[in-house]
Amino acid sequence: MSDEDNSDQIKTVFQNDQGKKTIDVYWIADDGGLTLLVPYLLTRRKRWRRCKVRVFIVGDEQNEEEGRKEMIALLKRFRLDVNDVIVMTDSEKRPQAKSLTRFVDSVAPFRLYDEQQEGASVQELRQNAPWKISDKEFEVFRLKSERKIRLNEIIRKNSQHTALVLVSLPVPHRDCPSALYMAWLDTLTCGLHCPAVLIRGNQQNVLTFYCQ
């Protein structure tokens, strides 16, 4: 939840009055509306009532304003009170070198490094460690890994000290090793000094507009 080793903060963060802080929602993909519904429900509670909700969406510079207006209109149809919609036009940029290095170092203990071991197949190396990541898998999912790293950079830049951060939970792929998937989750919340929730609906519509 938080990188800070402060058990008292973790225990009381949802009990304390949050004042006029913000709840930041990183809505990366449509999941039926759950990711947008949860912060709305939180602000119905007394301790969170004064919090502002900001929604971050993926977009490009050419259609930034159009995408923002469309999202605002959509939220109004859902009758969700959101204070601001921010289009992330730089989410496709390559992450910084130090962020990439941290990720590579974090997954190093969970890699097979099979291409460095002559005469041994991936299946043989995985007999005692079936969760480990082969060199081919690491390369196949490199772009997805970099996107998670880049998103973390954006979250740390914009939401370092917010009341709460909600991020769309990545969809697990059948071909993706479990160790790599868990590394993605760790990366998304790395370096945050506030509670973070990774959340995703099951594609069942939970908002009124969907149900009409």
TrEMBL record:
It is a multi-pass membrane protein. Keywords: Membrane, Transmembrane, Transmembrane helix. It comes from the Eukaryota. The keyword Secreted does not apply. It is found in: Membrane. Signal peptide: none annotated. Residues 11-211 form the SLC12A transporter C-terminal domain. It comes from Oryzias melastigma (Marine medaka). It holds the Pfam family SLC12. InterPro entries: SLC12_C, SLC12A_fam. GO terms for molecular function: sodium:potassium:chloride symporter activity. GO terms for biological process: cell volume homeostasis; chloride ion homeostasis; potassium ion homeostasis; potassium ion import across plasma membrane; sodium ion homeostasis. GO terms for cellular component: apical plasma membrane. This is Solute carrier family 12 member 3.
